[in-house]
Amino acid sequence: MRIGELAERTATSPRLLRYYEEQGLIRVDRSANGYRDYDEALVDQVAHIRGLLDAGLSTRIIRQILPCLNEPSEIHFADATPDIIATLEGHRDRLAERIALLTRNHDAIAEYVGSLKQCALGVERAVPA
Amino acid sequence: MRIGELAERTATSPRLLRYYEEQGLIRVDRSANGYRDYDEALVDQVAHIRGLLDAGLSTRIIRQILPCLNEPSEIHFADATPDIIATLEGHRDRLAERIALLTRNHDAIAEYVGSLKQCALGVERAVPA
DNA sequence: TTTGACCCTCACATCCGTGTGAAGGTTCGA
DNA sequence: TCGAACCTTCACACGGATGTGAGGGTCAAA
Asked: Which domain of life does the protein's organism represent (chains A, B) (predicted)?
């Protein structure tokens, strides 16, 4: 499909799709006329990338961890060098930290919202101003 | 305490502490000479803010959810308007989505790294080139 | 054949969190 | 009293993700 359709289907902009390509996040074919020609699978991939960006990861990091996340999950044996493994372990651990932090904040907000709703109910019943 | 000390204790920079103040994230007193005078509690608060920023939240959002996160957790009853509650629920839910997404990715990376290490071991044993 | 909707590249602009430096005031110890 | 180390404000700069516009090509339908 062409860039306009993919942009619409992923709720992004053509500009961003070109940017992700430039950053090495997606691979894109070209038609004879020079237009970008996107594979159907890119719809999911772009959604995935957007999620990761939205979660605060940089394109640099996403580029590094993306190979692990391909669905067929074919292991690239050549990648099993110690420093690549170390890099991935680092990303894995920092992801865990980030998750823990987000979880703490999520829980705090949830608790606060709970109290607030409780309180709103109480006010509604007790102080019918 | 003064800005230098707080910067050091929170591993930030004076510049950022001024910025957080400017963004309405922290409240800061002034000494007679015009110097900022930070309360002890700011150490934790700034750490908290840094965590949220690091987790990908913007100062605008942080400003909104910060009141819920104060340690004494004194509920601001006046805040219990339906739209504020809705906003908070929105943040809470989007946080939950992010956590789910990051968790999936964390697990995928962990699994991939596991396979990679396994594979590295195998190669080491099987192909002592 | 022309028009309109799409695509291309290039490049400058914006926002946000952050760094940095200038120009100057305060405090404190030598 | 001088200098070092701290503080102030102001303002410009930068990198990353994104918007926008100029100048131009492609293609299909009228």
From this structure: Bacteria
At residue B121, the pLDDT reads 65
Q: What is the pLDDT of residues B81-98, one digit of tens each?
A: 787 788 888 889 999 999
In the structure, how far is the CA atom of residue B49 from the C1' atom of nucleotide C23, in angstroms?
Answer: 31
In this structure, the answer to whether residues A45 and A66 fall within a common structural domain is yes
Query: Can you give the residue range of the structural domain that contains A123?
Result: 75-129
Nearest to A103 among B54, B69, B99 (CB): B99
Tell me if A106 and B116 make a contact (CB, 8 A cut-off): no
Q: What is the pLDDT of residue A105?
A: 87
> What are the backbone dihedrals phi and psi of residue A36, each rounded to the nearest 5 degrees, phi first?
-70, 140
Least Cα separation, residue B30 to chain A (angstroms): 30
Is residue A39 located within the same domain as residue A49?
yes
Q: So what's the pLDDT on residue A28?
A: 98
Same domain (yes/no): B18, B51? yes
Domain boundary among B37, B53, B74: B74
- Based on the fold, state whether residues B90 and B65 are members of the same structural domain: no
- Cα gap B18→B11, rounded to integer Å: 14
User: What number is the average pLDDT over the span A109-129?
Assistant: 72
The model's confidence at residue A127, banded by pLDDT at 50, 70 and 90, is: low
Element (H, E) at A29: strand A29-30
Q: Is the CB of B19 under 7 A from strand D?
A: no
Asked if residue B128 and residue B96 are part of one domain, the reply reads yes
pLDDT in tens, A6-33: 999 999 999 999 999 999 999 999 999 9
The Cα–Cα gap between B25 and B104 comes to: 32
Looking at the 3D structure of chain A, how many domains does it have?
A: 2
3-state secondary structure of A30: strand
Look up tokens 């071991």; give the residue: B121
Q: Are residues B40 and B84 in the same domain?
A: no
Closest-CA residue of B relative to A108 is B69
